[in-house]
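Quick start: what a row looks like.
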Amino acid sequence: MTMTRVFALVCLFTAFATPSLGNVRVVDGDTLKIDDQSYRIYGIDAPEIGQTCGAFACGKEAANALLGLVSGQRVTCEAVEIDRYGRKVARCFAGQRDIGAAMVDAGLAWAFRKFSLDYAAHEDAAKAAAVGVWAHETSDTSPPSEFREEHWQASAQSSPQAGCPIKGNISDNGRIYHAPWSPWYSRTKINEAKGERWFCNELEAIQAEWRAPYWP
């Protein structure tokens, strides 16, 4: 085996290795950060924190549920792929518990059927049991992907830089970006004299070394 081949295999193993417990933070109902690495939980799509499902604060409930699952647990994530934002899309476990399955079982995440059917049966069972969002489903309850698209389009048209609605804010907590669906978006003001700025997409913000806000 050539040295080039060995190096490639080492890099592949490093990129997809399962981490041991580190500093685990919740970003939202389907995203974790362990130390400096972000993980998007594979196969699910949880409501955004600022999203409501009828009168039910489903986004906050989903983030709180994920926080409850990982608190005090050894959290491991097995990467499936790396997405366009540099996050590892991964199957994550709190102890032996499959976090993706637990979130869908509780009715606090959709099975992300566009990319995977792994949790489709879990979603069907949650719907039948009318738990989580399915207990509060109304005509204005929309999947998170539709919620994000709606808020992106509205904010992109009204932002000072057309098509660039993400707000990059500087605070005591660091350089944090807020997408249009963030619950803190409307009250975040941009002061360009301080170095705050607008971004056209999340990848641009991440590459500039800004981060998404943590929950809570």
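That is the whole record. Residues 31 and 40 are 5 Å apart (CA to CA). DSSP finds six helices and eleven strands in the chain.
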